[in-house]
Every structure is written in structure tokens, then in C-alpha cells.
Amino acid sequence: MKDIMRMRKRLRSICIALLAVTCCLSFWPLPLYANPSINDVSGVVSEGLSIVISGYAFGAVGPTILIFDDFEKGSSGVQIKTAAGTAAVGNWDYTQLKVTYSDSHSHSGKYSLHSDWGSDGAVEGNRLTGKKLGSATELFFSWWQYVPIGAHVPGGGGKFGPNWKFFWLFGHRFPQSDYSCVLITDTLPPGNADYVGFGLKNDRNPPERYGVGWIYPVEFKKGEWKRFDHYLKWGTANDGHFGLWELKNTGYHQWANKKNVTTGHEGESWEHLNFPGYGRGDTNNAHTFYDDIYVAKGPGARARVEIGDKSSYAKCSNLAIMTVTSWKTGKIVAVVRQGSFDAGRKVYLFVIDSDGKISSGYPVTIGGKGGK
Fold it and tell me: Which SS3 state, helix, strand or coil, does residue 334 take?
């Protein structure tokens, strides 16, 4: 009899425990640290139109987009505009020397940003556009760049040799707070590991800030558009984050995703971001082009919506970032930016949250309605 009573008591305890687990699961339907998941897309997936993305685990915070420029609001040969609303989202805050819209080459649409390094008497550097960041401590920026076949990179046709910085990020204590990158070859793709450097910094003030340094091999060729993505979180005592990615023909390649590193010094800040960062004056047919420049800041800087050519984000060889207008954990509203994808093309939509976690690809058609 005692054995029966003990068995009943044990069964009662097991039932109570199972009931507790069931109740918890009913109030907690999602696995902890789940990747974003897309359930539905409504609206027409076409350039400039808004779509609504429904799902779960998108995260509570989205990006603050400072600028997205596909340069379609300009006219060929005209200086890049800086007035409010002259980019697709936001505007540039300043330009230096001659930097113009061009219809000679583009990644999306008709126009791109063009720097002729022989203009302005071939003076050194600074044919650029710049964005004021407002003392940013967390940034994600993405861009496409291009050098025509037969053209030189800045300095590649001159006596001092090539020197082109794709971007330059800095603050008021320049150069103590700056990050940049440099290309020092006119041979594309670069044939050596010491020709393309990212995370290069001019100061050596302790503690030294993290930089990935020279990267190789890079798939940047003349006559082909190339995309890079950069994520930076400010940290003065091994609490920063440095991320760098290249979109290759074989997929989305990660060069660095380094957490718990030093990326800044006390009393400094990131206040300006320039494209391009620098280039040598060169009268011998030196030209660079940029398109689809995207800059976001804040705790949700990495959060974004993209379309790609493969169902797996890591395997995509072409991607386009949309511009988010509203972000909630289960619902996102975004304006379609179709990049170089043509109407009728089947693509896959991805949600990336603020931690960099990526959803599975959700199939949509450019120019078609969302939904499977």
C-alpha cells in the first residue's frame, strides 16, 4: 500500500511539472535567441514602393538611417547635391572639390557618384561627399564601388603611385579617432596581400584600436561593381565591435566580426563619414564611381531588410538593402530598393536583426505582390 501511495505521489509531481512546462511554453512560443523569421510579405515588391513584412523575432530596435543615396535625384555632370531630400533618404552634408552625378556607369538605376581625379588641376585628394554623424557610437554602412576598364585608380597613372581610400571615418580629434581603408595598387583584382587594407588608423595612442589590416584575396575587378559592408561599435576598453564583409561571387564573405575589442579612445567620437575618403590627383584617366551608399547608426544600426539572389543569405552574390520606415519585433515597413535586380526576377527577402542574426530567405518577385 505504501508503494502505491509513493507511486501516486510521484505521478502527481510529474503531472504538475509537465503542466508547468506546458503553461510556460504557451506564454513563450519562441526559442530564446531565435533568428528572425518571415511569415508574410504584403505589397508590391517594386522600386520605391512600401511593403509590410510580418513574422517574429525581428528584434525591438531597427536602424536610424542617416542616408541612402542611389544618386537618381541628380543630373549627369552636376555637383552632388546637399540640400534636404536630395538623396533617396536624407542628404549629404557637404562636398569637397568636384564630385558629380554620372550616367556613364551605375549599379542601380541611371546615375552614380563620379570622381575624376584629374579635375581641379589634379590636386591631391578630397573629391568627395560627406555625412555628419552626430557623434555616432554605432554604425553600419554599405556601398558599391567601381573603376572602369582602361581607367586608373587615383594615382595609378601618376608618378607617386596609386592611393585610394574607399571611405574615411573620423571625429574632431582627427586623426586619433579615425578609421579608413586603402587601396595601393592599380592592378585589379589585387595580386598581393599588402594592397588592400581595412581598419587602418593613423594614431598609435594606447590602447591601440582594433583593425583587420590587409585582406587578401579581394575580388575587386575593373569593370565590375563591388560591395563592402562595415559595422563599427564604439568601445574604449575591449567592449567595441568591428565587422567587415565583402560581397563575392561565391557569397557574402566575412573578413571580420570581432567583438570585445577597443575601437575608440576616451574623449573622441565619430562625427564624419566621407566617400571616397581620399585619392591622389591623377590626370592620366583616373576615375572612381560609387552607388547605393547606405549609412545607419544607433543600437539598431545592423538591423535591415535586404533582397538577394539566393535563398541563403551567405550564398548570395547580389544583394540590395531596402530602407526601413518602421520596425517592430513582428512587423516591419520598408521601401523597396531593388538595386540591380530587374523586374520579373525571383529573389529572396531577408531580415537581419540588430545582433546580425539573419532570417531564411522568403521568396518574392520583383514587380510582383508579396506572399508565397
Answer: strand
Joined grid coordinates for residue 337: 530598393
- Are the beta carbons of 143 and 167 closer than 8 angstroms? yes
Q: Whole-prediction pTM value? A: 0.90
C-alpha cell, 204:
598609435
Query: What is the DSSP track for 115-161?
Result: EETTSGGG-SS--EEEEEEEEESEEEEEEEEE--TTPBPTTTTSTT-
pLDDT digits (tens, 9 = 90+) for 87-131: 999 999 999 999 999 999 999 999 999 999 999 999 998 999 999
State yes or no: cis peptide before 31, omega within 30 of 0.
no
**Strand 64-69 with 287-297, pairing:** antiparallel
Phi, psi of 170 (to 5 degrees): -160, 170
Of the candidates 102, 121, 126, 119, the residue with the CA atom closest to the CA atom of residue 272: 126
β-partners of residue 102 are 112
d(CA 55, CA 36): 8
Amino acid identity for residue 73 in this structure: K
List Cβ neighbours of 361 (8 Å cut-off, separation of 6 or more). Answer: 308, 310, 311, 312, 313, 348, 349, 350
